[in-house]
Amino acid sequence: MIKVPEPGIKSFYCLLSLKILAFVSIFFLIVSASALASSQRDLHRYDIPLGNSYAMGTPDAAITIVEFGDFQCSFCARAHPILERLVLEHKDVRLVWKFALHPFHDWARGAASAALAAGEQGKFWEMHRLLFEHQDDLREVQIFMLAKELGLDMKAFRKSFLNPAHQHIMDEDTKLARSLDVYSTPTLFLNGQKIVGIRPFEVMVQVLDEERRLLARGEAPADVSPSRAKTPMDRAMVDLIFKPPRARPTGTIRVGDEAPDFTLLGTHRKPVSLSAFRGEKNIVLAFFPAAWTPV
Q1: Does any domain span residue 260?
Q2: pLDDT category, 45, cuts 50, 70, 90?
Q3: Domain final residue, candidates 225, 258, 278
Q4: How far apart are CA 262 and CA 275, in angstroms?
Q5: Helix or strand or coil: residue 52?
Q6: Whether residue 264 sits in one domain with residue 135
Q7: Residues 73, 185 contacting (CB under 8 angstroms)
Q8: Domain that includes residue 271, residue range
Q9: For residue 35, is pLDDT > 80?
Q10: Long-range CB contacts (< 8 A, 24+ apart) of 237-240?
Q11: Region 251-266: what's the mean pLDDT?
Q12: pLDDT digits (tens, 9 = 90+) for 224-243
């Protein structure tokens, strides 16, 4: 015969179980938060060669933020006003821009060349801002309209826009990004410390304050290294992001046979529907998990 515990004992065990469950939940929440923070912020320090990259802020600023970005990246567009405000409100901060172009952004190179061409007339950051503000349409016609809006010498701009040297700058920056395991944009290096994605302005101010405390104690920068050894997973991710993938069709799909039509936004934020395809097509859908999405 099984003896049933008294109601008081039941309540005791129930309360104890709830306390244990709450403790375990809080523990895993803390561990998960720490894991997320460490995945977004790398405590290593990297030596980033600045070269002739365009910079905003005081040249001898104590804190340098190097941003690897792409003018067609929507997250970079969100990051720009935050980073610009940091430089304007903090005299010990400067921002350096480097290109990390994604092969699936077909307007990125033209936009980058436009920024460099404007830079030759002293208007790099002005064009930089306009390109993000008009990110929905960065075709050549639109870019030349932006150049006129800035009052640039259009003859000189056209000549500079087609300068092959600009492609070399983009390629060298993107190559550097790959060597630093930059998988996504924007990726920041604050005095060499890697931060993936952007944070709210208030959080970035806290990061700056922390860096200032380290500098005051003589503890930063430290552990400076050109790059870390890549693991096989790192190399696979780099190749996936920076090398145009080859289509590997698994079979022939006739639109409408097995699935209803659906519409999604393309890279230019214009809707693309399956019904736009006629006849038999080999269709490849690629999904990139956005683990770097800003918080």
Answers
A1: yes
A2: confident
A3: 225
A4: 8
A5: coil
A6: no
A7: yes
A8: 249-286
A9: no
A10: 237/183, 238/178, 238/181, 238/183
A11: 50
A12: 444 443 433 344 434 444 44
